[in-house]
UniProtKB/TrEMBL annotation:
Pfam families: DUF538. InterPro entries: At5g01610-like, DUF538. It comes from Cannabis sativa (Hemp). SUPFAM superfamilies: At5g01610-like. This is DUF538 family protein. It comes from the Eukaryota.
Amino acid sequence: MTLKSTKPMIDIVIARAKGTLSSTVEEKAKWIFNKLKGSPPKTLPDLLREYNLPPGLFPQNITCYEFDETKARLIVYLPSPCEVSFKDSSVIRYANRVKAILLRGKLTGIEGMKTKVLVWVKVTCVAVESSKSDKVWFTAGVKKSRSKDAYLVASNGVRIEDF
């Protein structure tokens, strides 16, 4: 076999490898390019809106967030554990770091969020059935719906001693 006859085969292998890696490399390249260019990253409320979730689901005073689109992994950082009272009288507590999987209309596998249902219960999932839905479903031991309007605007978190 000569080098000339193997070149097309090598080109095919490289093209296939590029195809499988291109989306990951492309995402990382966009991230690096935006960092170098100084493009402002999307705000957390904008990201939540894009995924059909209410933009006020997290407090206003987050420090920053990380979102890995390839793994759908979201991490939200807060300066300290805090508590937010919403206009529907519900109360949510946030740890200084909240982790979750962000999917269209759903935040699942949540770590670092609690709600009061007689006692403080860990929130494991927050979901909206459709963009036209006026309910947000919280799963915290039991699944309970709340008015979506209460979570349209981010509120300030009140610092608490213990999550």
